Model the fold of this input.
Amino acid sequence: MKRYLITSALPYASGITHLGNVVGSTLPADIYARYCRLLGRETLYVCGSDEHGVAITIAAEKEGVSPRELVDRYHQANATALAGAGIAFDVYGRTTDPLHIATAQEFFQSWLRKGLLVEREDDQFYDEEARIFLPDRYVEGVCPNCNYDKARGDQCDSCGAYYNQLELKQPRSVVTGQTPVVRRTKHWYFKLDAFQDWIHSYIEGHAPSWKDNVVQQSRSWVKQGLAERAATRDMQWGIPVPVPDADGKVLYVWFEAVLGYISATKQWAEQQGTPDAWKTWWQDPETIYTAFLGKDNIVFHTIIFPILLHSRAEEGFILPEQVPANEFLNLEGQKFSKSRNWAIDLVQYLRDFPEAQHVDILRYVLTMNMPETKDSDFTWRDYQARTNNELAAILGNYVNRVVQFTIKNFNGAVPARTAAEPDEHEQALQSAITHGIESVARNLDAFRYRDALTEAMNIARAANKYFNDTAPWKAIKEDPARAAHALNVCLQTIRTLSVVFAPFLPHAAAAMQTAVGEPVHTGAPGTTQDVWTSAGVALLPTGRVLHEPGILFTRIEDSVVEEKIAQLGDQKPSEPTEPAEPMITIDDFMKVKLRTAVVLQAEPVEKSKKLLKLQVDLGTERRQILAGIAQHYNPEQLIGKTIVVVANLQPAKLMGLESQGMVLAASNDSGVLTLVQPSDVGIGPGAEVR
Done:
């Protein structure tokens, strides 16, 4: 039976993790791990702190503390903050742990025995004033590839090139600012080049299933040709090189940090009282390994780590099956920068928004803006809009209305269903539930989180429509049995929603499950019960007592958004620019007549992949409109939706059919399209939009 091993790139313990780090690797991994557990899959989610390397020593020097004091503080702070954000690891290790040190040294010694390490003297920059050899990040200069003047000693942040530090032009020591000299020093180099053909085959074998950004970056690295790479460094802070005459030398962090996944799993196994259980996860072909990370870590997980694992293939070490790397998240249109106070770190967010609902709001907004294929942007206005118009108005409002109405009219218990066949409203809802659950699962298995969450919210939209169409507040007076049946269906749907939203919104999911008397299953570690498969089945028994869930999501006011934006500094007034679009007068705008319309029928247009033919009710008349939304909506999803159309547009012929209007829709940076719809579900057809 397959088991699922999941890792997130280890956050540096040199500072507090910010939202860009969270959306890059820990949040998508947590969503996937929760989903796997909800399906009953045996799952292990591993992460931890990366606590060695120059980034740590530089941060410690800036704060005037020892590296040990620094990593102890930030390891605990990040572990607490990530847990506060609902990121539920099975184990959160650290690379200063004795078990990790022993694991890394044991790997090093095995490579020595196999002749995969070459010992040689080489030239390295040396700071005569500080009297130390300079590791790569202690040197800055001009990039030999693109001439960027703040390139690091091993990599250019501008063009992404990797190189030997001696290739850096106009080098300067980060420690003293002086120009370093070149001195000879001894190091051990790992023979990456010995695996050139093997790693090429590994990457190409996975290319059809990996994301394009992962494949292209990996291919580019391999195409340049692999070379021997230093596995040791001249430093005092790190894991000592486990051979004689190696004083002052430590294992290079690129080599030992990725082994933290294995050592953390060993730590977990010892905590379970089964020390050898780690082998089941790392040395058994039944394990499917998925590594989550940001794009700056791609080559370490598609080239270096696989080579390190393959070098011990005789022991059965498995390799990453999927590496769904994300691009970068920006903040209000700019890159995250702690030095400019243009960042939101996780501790800060949780301090400002301590309620559980705000954890789910953050997870929702980050997921809907996840940089899956290209860089994306977090803005406080979007945070507000998604909270108010989606979480509060659609999901939270539905749960509150259904439970409150049932408590008021049916003694707070699940009412009975009738024996009658489902009417068209119930059939439409059940179709949306079946399609939605399948779509959420399909997208999560393909690591398309935005699409998965959109499909989950579409179920909530369909549930709201069913509640409005059956109008139990009217039926309770005319036909109480019909009202009871409708409320039973609505309550069963709350249970459905609690399961499909659980990977994304664990707090809200728990509240929904508690409200309808279900055990809490949000995919937390240690749970393997399959509740996903039966998510669409009506399992709530008649007579079960309900519990008030409270308000799941409260609105975000303008003042909150304005305050959060004002806290971002160094804000500089932008230069006045010409408008991006030609400006029109109010008279021009008033010429366009926008009306709400209810979709009566929807069907594909023959020989067109993009068009759907809609029959819509404008209140006073029925129109046919052709809309280019077939790649974003199934026809059955549209029936009954209230949309916005241009009502006074000249008719046009498309694919031989007349279109008598235009449907309004919006699309995000990734091309995902959403119909413009009134948020007030009481708006009927024919209402003027202005």
